Amino acid sequence: MNAIVIQQRGNPVAPNVKYIEDAPKPAPGLGEVLVRTEASALNSLDIWIGRGVPGIDTIYPFSSGSDGVGRVVEVGVGVESAWIGRRVLLNAAVVQNTTPHPDRVSVGEDIRMIGEHTAGTMREFFVAPATNVLDIGDIDPVKACAFGLTHLTAWRMLMTRARFQPGMILLVTGIGGGVALALLNIAKHFGCEVIVTSRHQSKLDRAMKLGANHGILDDGSDWSKAVRAITGKRGVDIVADSVGRAVHMSCIKSLARGGVLVTCGATTGGDANTDLSRVFWNQLTIVGSTMGDMTEFRAVSVLLKSGSIEPVIDSVHRPHNASLAFEKLESATQFGKIVIDWR
């Protein structure tokens, strides 16, 4: 089968990305479906796979990809044949079964990612547990693929982890990336006031056209005073961040009393300095968030199926031009999702 592979670890990643025509075709195992890929999309995770994820012994060449849409063409043992022919959207976060212990209670999920721990969607066929795909009917594959993982991540960040309520004021850092735009999409759907930041005025301008109420140009200095000015010195209820170290203190200083900083990543580094005095005195909460489960996936996908939310797509590429797609993602110039169309 045809596949996009990262041939070896390296930085930059794009030169190591190749399109091949002789990759082995996978077969569905117990409880799995085999999907003929119609569209797959890039995430920051694909770049980290190419550079080498700490703690993950990736065997190269490797097909990454944690966003995928396609038609089920075969099912494994234990899966109903009714799945065959259905167009499905993948949730790449596969929750692992944990072994019960008589003296301990497990409070966190153990997640293994399709496209990180196992081969992903950057190939003509991919496999996934039947429990991790959602029938999406006749929705356009490119649009659905651009929606998937980013909106799931944003939904968990806001709804599950930050306990978002309509009417809150939300700050989203680094607008232009897939998750940041998904956060804007969901917040505006619920009528929330949204402040966004970016290092690029052009991205702020585009975000304002999509419904952001305020844009702050991040020039590397502390922009929390601008947030305070916008909110009448009050601060925001939630900061949703994936930038990390470079903006952490500005995020903390932008929160209102009782506010929540929810983070799903740290593209500028995870070793941030914080202000614990401000955290306890203002009773702030800092929470982490990763992916989402199928209950959350179904909930957010209602917004896609109903047409309530349209994902932002930066560009669509053919599989043989995959290295250009990776190059675009590495440049951090994209505004929205970068999608591979396999049709």
End-to-end separation in angstroms reads 14 Å
State the helicity in percent bands. 25-40%
In percent terms, what proportion of residues is strand?
25-35%
* CATH level 3 topology of the largest domain: Quinone Oxidoreductase, Chain A, domain 1
How many separate structural domains?
2
Helix/strand class = alpha/beta
Shape: globular
Sheet of most strands: 7 strands, mixed
Task: Say how many strands there are.
Answer: 17
User: What is the correct CATH architecture of the largest domain?
Assistant: Alpha-Beta Complex
Name the CATH superfamily assignment of the largest domain.
Answer: Medium-chain alcohol dehydrogenases, catalytic domain
Output mean pLDDT: 94
Point out poorly predicted stretches: none
Radius of gyration: 20 Å
Q: Quickly count the helices.
A: 9
